[in-house]
Amino acid sequence: MALTTGNTSGNAFVREIFDSARLFLFSGHYGSGKSEIAVNFALELANSHRAAIADFDIINPFFRTASARAALEQKGVRVITPVFANTNVEAPALPAEIYTLFDDKGIKAVFDVGGDSAGAKAVSRYREEFANDSVANYFVFNIRRPLTATIDQLVDIFHEIEHSARTSFTALIGNTNLLGQTGEKDLLDGLGAAAELSVRLSLPVVFNACMGDPDETGAPSFYRRSHEMGIPVFHMKKYIYMDY
Q1: C-alpha 141: how far from chain center
Q2: Are 89 and 61 in contact, with CB atoms under 8 Å apart?
Q3: Deepest of 22, 44, 96, 225, by most Cβ within 10 A of its Cβ?
Q4: How far, rounded to the nearest angstrom, does the alpha carbon of residue 207 sit from its chain's CA centroid?
């Protein structure tokens, strides 16, 4: 896969990833940005396939895929969310509609998995269904978060989620950022962490996510380094907003 330097609609390399599986899982620690990546991935997926996204986050009822429902449905992406999503109910439940994503082999589905090992338990409920299908299971990480700032911490979280979900990760996704305060050093440090984590876990880095178009990012060294390392860049737009 070659490095893309175009805008979000020009993420051509992602289309190669689409052919690698039918079901795509995105898991990671709280604050990794997995939900934003899952939403952007589903929107890209919809350019060439019938697409759906399932919100598996039964832990955090506020910051979730459901927040981007309008943008997703406008693009034709089917959205499945937990019962009582975006409400004050502390333990929303997964709907039976989830099973239709396993039965309908003509659709490609994205699963936004809840943070940490507790959220990953939702995946274990459907372990048999995932085992009998073509699955890409991605671990999303951000080294600019307090509990995932070191490789050792990331490795621990990685194994905790795998154990809870009872499924194995197939690849890594780097998403190191500080929201609107992200600088080129953050992006470069993220690439370094991606390389080290890839060696530690013996897994490939499928891409590094970056908010905004290349001109907006203003990080030429980051793009050069990504190209040298053979790690494609997935350019995203912001669809989920969180009030602090």
Answers
A1: 9
A2: yes
A3: 44
A4: 10
Tell me if 200 sits within 8 A of 158, measured CB to CB. no
What span, in angstroms and rounded, lies between the C-alpha atoms of 77 and 41?
11
CA distance 211 to 163: 30
Calculate the CA dihedral of residues 217, 180, 15, 94 and round it to 10 degrees: 180
Summarised one tens digit per residue, pLDDT across range 15-42 is 789 999 999 999 999 889 999 999 999 9
Give the class (CATH, top level) of 8-236: alpha beta
Three-state secondary structure call for residue 237: coil
Size (the chain), residues: 244
Closest residue by Cα to residue 56 from 134, 109, 15, 133: 109
Q: Determine the Cα–Cα distance for residues 191 and 101; give it in Å rounded to an integer.
A: 34
Find all residues with CB under 8 Å of 74, minimum gap 6, and list them: none
Q: Which residues face 234 on adjacent strands?
A: 209
Q: Which residues contact 153 (CB under 8 A, 6 or more apart)?
A: 147
Q: What is the 3-state secondary structure (H, E, C) of 77-111?
A: CEEECCECCCCCCCCCECCHHHHHHHHCCCCEEEE
Residue type, 90: E
pLDDT tens-digit profile of 96-138?
Answer: 999 999 999 999 999 999 877 777 888 999 999 999 999 999 9
